[in-house]
Amino acid sequence: MTHIPRILTFSGSLRSASWNHLVAMTAASGAEAAGADVTPIRLGDHPLPLYDQDLESSEGLPESARKLKQLFREHDGFVIGCPEYNGSLTAALKNCIDWVSRPEEGHPSLDGFKGKVAGLVACSPGRLGGLRGLSHVRTILSGIGVHVIPTQIAVPSVGDLFDDKGIMTDERMKLSLEELGQAVAETARRLRA
């Protein structure tokens, strides 16, 4: 029986009206069309304190970090919307990665990441579309054992590309994003074969 890949989709933005969330969801629709089971989440629904080893040593992993780690463990891959703040990734995305990467008794090291696959997308109202931050996310994820697919998409002038229902109106960009999502699903399936 063919493995049905499970793909976790989220954005590094905490903003409820996040463009990056919409772009990630558009890409994830390609993973779904390729037969993946897609789980969308919002990091704002999983509030985490700033990573602090003293806090971890004295209190252990916060419950929200445990739940997030379990979600990462249960999935074969990720489609991540990567907002660019000051030329890099957001504090929320880095903090999520930091907590999920922490060891937990009874589980292998980095089991939320190692051997999984990720597709990265970004967007902004500007001309570069959040491109500069993508290389930072790629470096971090690659360093903890994630297979980051080579294709990454930065969507410029994003405010002009969605209708009032959150549907992308630029068919060419939509197709590119869906193809990225499809590649994540297909890579995840091959890695589990």
What would you say this structure looks like, in words?
- This protein has 193 residues and is α/β, with parallel strands linked by helices.
- It has one domain (6-192): Flavodoxin domain (Rossmann fold, 3-Layer(aba) Sandwich), CATH 3.40.50.360.
- It is built from six helices and five strands.
- Helix 1 (19-33) packs across helix 6.
- 42% of the residues are buried.
Brief rundown of the structure:
This protein has 6 helices and 5 strands. It is α/β, with parallel strands linked by helices and 193 residues long. The protein has a single domain (6-192), classed as Flavodoxin domain (Rossmann fold, 3-Layer(aba) Sandwich).
Draw up the topology in text:
Layout: E1 6-11, H1 19-33, E2 37-40, H2 53-59, H3 63-73, E3 77-81, H4 91-100, E4 117-123, H5 131-143, E5 147-155, H6 171-192
Parallel strand pairs: 1-2, 1-3, 3-4, 4-5
* CATH topology (level 3) name: Rossmann fold
CATH class: Alpha Beta
Q: Indicate the CATH architecture.
A: 3-Layer(aba) Sandwich
The H-level CATH homologous superfamily, spelled out, is Flavodoxin domain
Share of β-strand residues: 15-25%
What gross morphology would you assign? globular
**Element-by-element helix/strand order:** EHEHHEHEHEH
Strand order of the largest sheet: 2-1-3-4-5
As a whole number of angstroms, the C-alpha radius of gyration is 16 Å
What ranges have pLDDT less than 50 throughout 5 or more consecutive residues? none
Question: How far apart are the first and last residues' alpha carbons, in Å?
Answer: 10 Å
Tally of individual helices:
6
Task: Indicate the mean pLDDT.
Answer: 95
Give the fraction of residues assigned to helices: 40-55%
Secondary structure class reads alpha/beta
